[in-house]
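Hey all, sorry for the wall of text incoming. These are the two entities for the joint prediction.
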Amino acid sequence: MHSLTARSFPLRRPRGVLPMARGAGPAGPRQVFCYHCDHPLTVGAMAMSTNCPGCNKPIILEDIVVKSYKAVFNVETCGKLIVKKGGRVVAQKRIVAHAGIESDGVIQCKTAITGSHVRLGKKSEWRGDLRTPTLIVEPGAKIQTSHFSVPDDPLEHLKKNDQ
Amino acid sequence: MADPAVNETVIGSDTTIKGDMTVESRARILGKFEGTIRAKGHLEIADAAQCRADVETGTVQIDGTMQGNITASDKAQLNATARVSGDLVAAKLIVAEGAAFTGHVSVGPDAVKGSGHHTPTPPAPPAPDASDKSGKK
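and here's what came out:
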């Protein structure tokens, strides 16, 4: 078992985990927050990973796409977590996806924290606590007993401080 | 246009009710309600409605403010203006973007079966062999 953290992910991408296609992101620089220390940083639109100037730890900026079974400790990214149909993410600890989660597969975790919307598709399954500002559940999604807190934007205080 | 054959219970926007309510078909809450609601059909909590109640129903559509546990044997729909605090058990859940929710969630056909909260059914008639057992001894 390994972790989809910056330590392993950009250098040695696990099987079944694909990065977002280039050119799909927004144009121009964008601001993100380090998921280790909440330090704000401005990165290029196409940047896939960088080091946080606050804590000097590596952080992933790209979207993580899962198309198969993936068992990890943590899933952490400043981008999106996208679980395709047939994909299954089992995170022993937490999922942090600052740009949101889109799932048509199975997600299992202890806690998931996002700074943007979470969409659970009609064939998706969810197990784990969730804190998100926006939740979209399509009919047919299965949710095993979990604590949901919506809206609860974990990045809200960071955005306020930044303004 | 509403079907005249279907009875609908409407609690008006200037009404406050405290207590238990059992509805056979449809209910619509526009005002305030505190207590328990059991509806076999459809329950609608309108935009300006405030509800502090435990709800057991077939389907529920929430546009207003709701505080309490919800058990929907068929479908629960939280629209964009919904503000819900409490535990939710439903066979199907639809949450629109903008809805606020805090509580434990269980969704799926198995969740309703396992919850132990069902729409109340009429009591079964007593078993005919109840007296026979005592007679045998």
